[in-house]
Design goal:
The complex is a heterodimer of chains A (about 325) and B (about 325).
Chain A: H1 2-31, H2 36-43, H3 49-58, H4 65-77, E1 83-84, E2 89-90, H5 91-126, H6 131-145, H7 148-162, H8 180-218, H9 221-228, H10 233-270, H11 276-285, H12 289-317
Antiparallel strand pairs in A: 1-2
Helix pairs in contact in A: 1-4, 1-12, 2-3, 5-6, 5-8, 5-10, 5-12, 6-8, 7-8, 7-10, 8-10, 9-10, 10-11, 10-12, 11-12
Chain B: E1 5-16, E2 19-31, E3 36-40, H1 47-55, E4 63-72, E5 75-76, H2 82-88, E6 93-96, H3 110-122, H4 126-139, H5 145-148, H6 158-170, E7 176-180, H7 188-205, E8 208-212, H8 216-222, E9 225-230, E10 233-239, H9 240-245, H10 250-257, H11 260-264, H12 302-306, E11 312-313, E12 319-320
Parallel strand pairs in B: 3-8, 3-9, 6-7, 7-8
Antiparallel strand pairs in B: 1-2, 1-4, 4-5, 9-10, 10-12, 11-12
Helix pairs in contact in B: 3-4, 3-6, 4-6, 6-7
Classes of the chains: A mainly alpha (about 325), B alpha/beta (about 325).
The structure holds adenosine-5'-triphosphate (ATP) and magnesium ion.
């Protein structure tokens, strides 16, 4: 029961946060010089004052600020993010078209970074002075220091140009024939470089943190108890120690989720990945305000949902989270 | 009757920053089936190290058994393989620790933490282990076990957590239970309850107990025999009542004088000490060929400062490592 109410509480806060994002978005739009009427007029090659008045009335732009704000929020909450004049499509349609590609990239990269990072962290914590441990430290420093686009271009040159192992860009090859497996295989091949590029820095972060927290946990009294019970080393590491050392890593992963998304913008640009990042880049260049705002709103939504999920995973890992006493 | 556990000439070395130190030096002891033996001595004298050596749990890469044997059931634990030690730990020999607040894993329920050791050593399935865990919670006198078995450690008090630790330790009905200062972190009323519980359960199951404690009162109540340790060596050993009646080592004498209600029963010729003056020598000096207590001893003479006392045995089974044991 307590858990249910806290989750409801979290969702309530999340919705409030989203509305705050919307108000901010809308206010920025409102403060900026010019409005949609100008854009439309510009797009149709100029218009006189009467027509402008007409357009403003049609779009409700003659209403007071708060009425407009209310209408905007109401629209967004019913998934109407406005109309892109650049693409001449509803923004919602545009975004939904690109979302799967981006989510695929972001989620795969995050999971890859978490799994490999945690494994490297655990292995190196078991033997803190071994070769692997030093290697992890080295890779972590490298991954942390290298900018995403640099890593991306380097990998492109190495594994796409020199050794032609992976395609250089895009998400699917339309010329690929064959059934489901052939197409999935093609998708996987396209994913490798972008996912590795995007996850490097996060993999570095997670493995460092996991190594540190694992080493700390291995020195605790309850691990001594587990040894005193006669458990095997694997039971001690993977049952008793791992679950305890995951909390800080999951917390960090939650915090870094927004960074993964912004990293995806760069990675999509480098690998011409047809996702939200590419869309954002194009709409910024085209000054397509509704689309940019839509993407901002959508990113905020994804980050908030990501935090909610992080919170729930933390609760699953550690029963002390959120309980008092 | 052959002893259940027989430690002979045990030497444990610790690798420290300053070099290798003999934290336990030439220690021998015996533990008989079903008896309670107590280790007493000041902080840092090596009580926990001895216990950990018996468990095969000396700190990784730091501590090791340098020489000596730890015979248990005809098997030398000092030479046993890791796999063999894992079979023995928690099954034949188990241990509870000083810190009940942190000794249980915070992310698993107490029921699981008890059941786990049963599954490991008794080949029980999930259901059998759980119902046995309930019985054990009842045995360690946790009220209403059914409603507590799925609690997490943070939902319990320190005393209750130590009861859970005892339940884990006794789950497989071990031959030896090592309790390393099991009550130090608990408040006084709870301390007495835990000691009662240990004594009663030890009697019921016939488990031999090694009780490590600073509490001379508890030793007097719980143990049949005691070993007084000083700076990694045995100072005195013998039946508890005999030692309290007539300590044969100046250090023991000092320790006993620290406990008011024990002194009250004794004769008047004891000096009124409130504590044993001076400090334990540093770890690096543990190997010296001298009586390590000599720097704190009023009776120390040249012999004490130049050669390590040999153990003197008395007819009442008291042993003392003091050159002047006879005169004491
Ligand atoms: N992991 C370790 N590394 C280095 N030295 C250690 C380590 N653990 C213990 N020691 C040292 O070994 C000596 C004996 O420690 P031990 O824990 O056996 O003492 P103890 O008699 O149990 O004392 P206490 O009553 O405080 O528990 C101490 O001087 C201690 O500083
Ligand atoms: Mg100790």
């Amino acid at each position: 029961m307590v858990i249910l109410t806290t989750i409801l509480q979290r969702i309530f806060y999340a919705v409030m946060l989203l509305i705050a994002v919307l108000v901010l978005n809308f206010s920025m739009l409102h403060l900026a010089p010019g409005d949609i009427a100008d854009t439309i007029a510009q797009a149709s090659g100029g218009a006189d004052a009467d027509v402008m008045e007409q357009i403003r009335r049609d779009y409700g732009l003659d209403q007071p600020f708060f009425v407009q704000l209310g209408q905007y929020i109401g629209k967004v909450l019913s998934f109407d993010l406005g109309h892109s004049f650049f693409y001449n499509q509803p923004v919602t349609t545009l975004i939904l078209e690109k979302v799967p590609a981006t989510l695929l990239l972001v989620i795969t990269a995050q999971i890859f970074a978490l799994v490999v990072g945690v494994l490297l962290g655990v292995f190196s914590a078991r033997n803190p002075n071994g070769m692997l441990s030093h290697f992890v430290t080295f890779v972590a420093l490298l991954g942390y220091a290298a900018p995403v686009f640099w890593t991306g271009i380097l990998l492109l040159i190495a594994f796409s140009l020199n050794i032609q192992l992976f395609p250089s860009g895009g998400m699917i090859d339309v010329t690929v024939e064959g059934g489901f497996f052939a197409q999935t295989w093609d998708l996987l091949k396209h994913m490798v470089l972008p996912v590795v590029t995007l996850s490097t820095i996060f993999l570095a972060l997670y493995s460092r943190l996991c190594r540190a927290s694992m080493m700390e946990v291995l020195g605790t009294d309850y691990i001594r108890t587990a040894k005193a019970k006669g458990l095997s080393e694997n039971e001690i590491i993977y049952k008793h120690a791992l679950k305890n050392s995951l909390s800080p890593v999951v917390t960090l992963a939650g915090i870094q989720f927004s960074a993964v998304i912004s990293g995806a913008v760069l990675v999509e640009a480098v690998f011409s990945w047809p996702g939200l990042g590419s869309l954002a880049l194009q709409s910024i260049i085209a000054r397509d305000t509704p689309t940019i705002l839509g993407i901002l709103f959508f990113s905020a939504l994804v980050v908030i949902v990501g935090n909610l999920i992080t919170d729930m995973i933390l609760r699953m890992i550690d029963p002390r989270v959120g309980s008092k006493g | 009757m052959a002893a259940l556990l027989k430690v002979e000439n045990l030497r444990i070395e610790l690798t420290t920053r300053d070099g290798i130190a003999p934290v336990i030096d030439d220690l021998s002891l015996e533990l008989n089936a079903g008896e309670t033996l107590s280790f007493v001595g000041e902080s840092g004298c090596g009580k926990s190290m001895t216990a950990l050596a018996i468990m095969g749990l000396l700190p990784d890469k730091v501590g090791r058994v340098a020489s000596g044997t730890i015979m248990f059931d005809g098997e030398d634990l000092a030479k046993a393989s890791d796999a063999r030690l894992r079979e023995i730990r928690g099954n034949d020999i188990s241990m509870i620790f000083q810190e009940p607040m942190t000794s249980l894993n915070p992310v698993y329920t107490i029921g699981e933490q008890i059941a786990e050791v049963l599954r490991r050593h008794q080949n029980m399935d999930q259901a059998a282990a759980r119902s046995r865990a309930l019985e054990l919670l009842d045995a360690v006198r946790i009220p209403n076990p059914k409603s507590r078995v799925d609690d997490y450690p943070h939902q319990m008090s320190g005393g209750q957590r130590q009861r859970v630790m005892i339940a884990i330790a006794l789950a497989c009905e071990p031959k030896i239970l090592i309790a390393d200062e099991p009550t130090t972190a608990l408040d006084v009323t709870v301390q007495a309850q835990i000691f009662d519980l240990l004594r009663d359960l030890g009697k019921e199951t016939g488990t031999a107990i090694i009780l490590i404690t600073h509490d001379m009162g508890a030793v007097a109540e719980m143990a049949e025999r005691m070993i007084v340790m000083y700076a990694g060596r045995k100072a005195e050993e013998g039946p508890v009542d005999q030692i309290i009646e007539h300590p044969r080592h100046p250090y023991t004498k000092g320790l006993i004088s620290c406990v008011p209600h024990l002194v009250a029963q004794l004769s008047d010729d004891r000096p009124e000490l409130t504590e044993v003056r001076g400090i334990v020598p540093s770890l690096m000096d543990f190997g010296r060929d001298e009586c390590l207590f000599s720097s704190r001893c009023e009776r120390a003479d040249d012999k004490c400062r130049s050669s390590r006392p040999t153990e003197m045995k008395f007819k009442n089974d008291q042993h003392s490592a003091c050159w002047q044991a006879k005169e004491l």
